[in-house]
Amino acid sequence: MSDFIYYLVLIFWSAILGLLILASFNWTLGIRRKYVEILLKIFEFGRVKIEKAERHLRLKEAEDAVIDNLHSVIDKKVYVGPLSSQLEVPSIPRNRSYDTLKKEFHLWDTTDFIKSGIEAIIEDEVTKRFAAAELPSWNLLTRTNKNHGFISYRLSILWGIGWILRYLILLPIRLKKWTYCQVSLMCFRILARSFSAIVTFHNKENKAKGGGICVANHTSPIDVVILACDNCYALVGQNQGGLLGLLQRALARATSHVWFERFEIKDRSLVTKRLREHCQDSSKLPILIFPEGTCINNTSVMMFKKGSFEVGGIIYPAAIKYDPRFGDPFWNSSKQGYMHYLLMMMSSWAIVCDVWYLPPMHRQEGESSIDFSKRVKSVISKQGGLVDLEWDGQLKRLQVKKEWKELQQQEYSRKIMGD
What we know:
By secondary structure, the chain is of the alpha/beta class. The protein has helices at about 1-25, 30-60, 65-75, 100-105, 110-120, 155-175, 175-195, 220-230, 240-255, 265-280, 340-345, 370-385, 400-415; strands at about 195-200, 215, 235-240, 260, 285-290, 300, 315-320, 350-355, 385-390. Helix 9 links the parallel strand 3 (about 235-240) and strand 4 (about 260). The longest helix is centred in the first third of the chain and has 31 residues, at about 30-60.
């Protein structure tokens, strides 16, 4: 029995290690897609059974209107050098004829030239300046002692410890941005696979680049996980509490994310300033913003806040469309806590979605930030098959503004007056 448990635990941890390796290198065995195909077959089997039951019920009770409504729900599809004068050269007497010189020449007359040449080779003042200087002692770097072999156990152990310190600790710290990107992609991919996320990315050539702003429609906190599986972003969002707040603080230690209080005017002006500075530096990560400012149920796109469109950077739109047949990812924050929402996502069949990267957009000359935001919103809603609405998503938290009420009253008055 103990052997069975041992092998069971071994198999379990081997599988976990394998999954981590696959997720780290973004490899896949196709199991999740097969899983989705099996689910679709199961769903189709259930649909056929339901249709048969409805047909029998229709013949029995003749409730055509109710049955047609049920069919519409079941059948609905979602698409989703040195100078020469410094050399000692033997002097040759002048005014000597060639015949005289030939009679007085001896072989040892060349020894001075040979001596100067050998000295130049041994202690060349120029050439040795182009090679690494010989150190008085080895600094445990292989490249400064290429002929190093085994000298002693202690020295070899010290060299090994130094190699680990330099390559596994110091090098990643000095390559913080590259390391962060690789670790971020790995972690978010592992997180996405924890709730069986099947994400299809379209038009990857339009991915956000450094110094740009990526804007997308907002359905749930999972939107960040979905997009971060394919690119690294600096995030901008509202301060949260609980587990989500803990995650925000952990992310802020890794790179320059911006968290703010929604209704603090001082925070809002600071965010706009930070965004403008960020967009002027192409070496920084692209910023990910959800301009709606709240979660929408993925059937429409509501009003985009103009703040992110005022800073003058390049806008990279992205449209996210989920398939609700496998699980509804919408987070109703007014009714569900974050832990409750995570439990719902973990217990769903899968999270299946498509992400379209749209061509980058620029603010046109003379175009206001509001008109620019509407143009970007229209492109996202059209690509994702979502309804384009002008209403502010903050209506679920705040009362309707007085100006909007007056606008509706004016519209109603014009209808009455026949204007």
